Amino acid sequence: MKAFAKAFYESAAWRRTRAYILKRDAGLCVRCGAPGCIVHHKTELTPRNIDDPMITLNEDNLETVCRTLHIEPDALSAIVATGYGRNNIPFATRTKTEITCHARGAHALNPAVRTIIDIGGQDSKVINLDETGHVSGFMMNDKCAAGTGRFLEMMARTLELDMEEMSRRGLTWEKELTISSMCTVFAESEVISLIADNHTDSDIIHGLNQSIAGKTAAMAARAKGQPPYMMTGGVARNRGVVQALEEKLGAKLFISENPDLCGALGAALFALHGD
Q1: Contact call for residues 24 and 59 (beta carbons, < 8 A)
Q2: pTM for this one?
Q3: How does pLDDT run across 11-21, given as a tens digit for each residue?
Q4: What CATH number is associated with residue 191?
Q5: Average pLDDT of 137-145?
Q6: Are 271 and 79 within 8 A, CB to CB?
Q7: In a domain, 215, yes or no
Q8: Which residues contact 271 (CB under 8 A, 6 or more apart)?
Q9: In the prediction, which pLDDT does 143 show?
Q10: CA gap 133, 113 in Å, rounded
Q11: Exposed (0-12), middle (13-18) or buried (19+): which is 24, by Cβ within 10 Å?
């Protein structure tokens, strides 16, 4: 959300108008018919028109769209690709590493942050930032899926739980269990054995969370991470892992509203500012 538009998007008038547009369009994207979740201004909001209700609240200037936004590449002045597949995006105008984009996004969200702990689907990393938000060092585990989102997905499948339920149950444990292996294959065998021994799902999940937190905190120590800490990546949505990691670090983690989009935000900022 752009700073000049923050007051508008938090206003009662916008909330009423947004609800009306979603109802008018039956909650569906007007362009493809998929479930819609974004009320889009056809005329872009700027500091010059943000106070003009004929632009901001005019129903003829508003439409419900899905998350894709149906934006054609030709309509964008720049497209920055990042992540492992960045070199496979033929329409990208530039590429940036995931580490650089995470740093840019994190600094924009919280300039005080000095260490990013990112646990995504394929790897985990610790990124050190200086006071200007530039990368001063990093360490990552990209050799296997140990302790990543993929690891948690496999454990959730073994426990026959979805990720949200796994997150909730990991907060209500009673008994300390030790999961000695972070290898997905061996950890799965341990979990199956613990289930067979009649240990509760909550205790098993807590053991998994503690193992992930211990491994991640050790990497942060090796990387000489310093607070304030920020956690990014989809695993930041797992409250049990977050709680366990905060205990290991002895510090709170700053987590944004959409921690899995931090790298995308950084890429967008690089595109916006042309640097």
Answers
A1: yes
A2: 0.77
A3: 999 999 999 99
A4: 3.30.420.40
A5: 82
A6: yes
A7: yes
A8: 76, 77, 78, 79, 80, 93, 94
A9: 67
A10: 8
A11: middle
